[in-house]
Amino acid sequence: MYFDAIAKIVSERTGCDISTVKPESKFYDLGIDSLDTVEMLMSLEDEIGIEIELDQKVETIDDLDKFIQSKKA
What we know:
Layout: H1 3-14, H2 34-48, H3 61-72
Helix pairs in contact: 1-2
């Protein structure tokens, strides 16, 4: 549901082509470290208009997408 927004932010942040960002892509493998994660989440909050309080570990794009969906519900 939020995959496209997440992929866009990841692509902008890392400089990778958006087509290489897949649901199973791990943030670490995309070159995103903990500082990048915080900055990426702030950008994502602006993009989708939802405050994201990450209270669990997410390793993949799909993990983050499902986490946001669970908090939105």
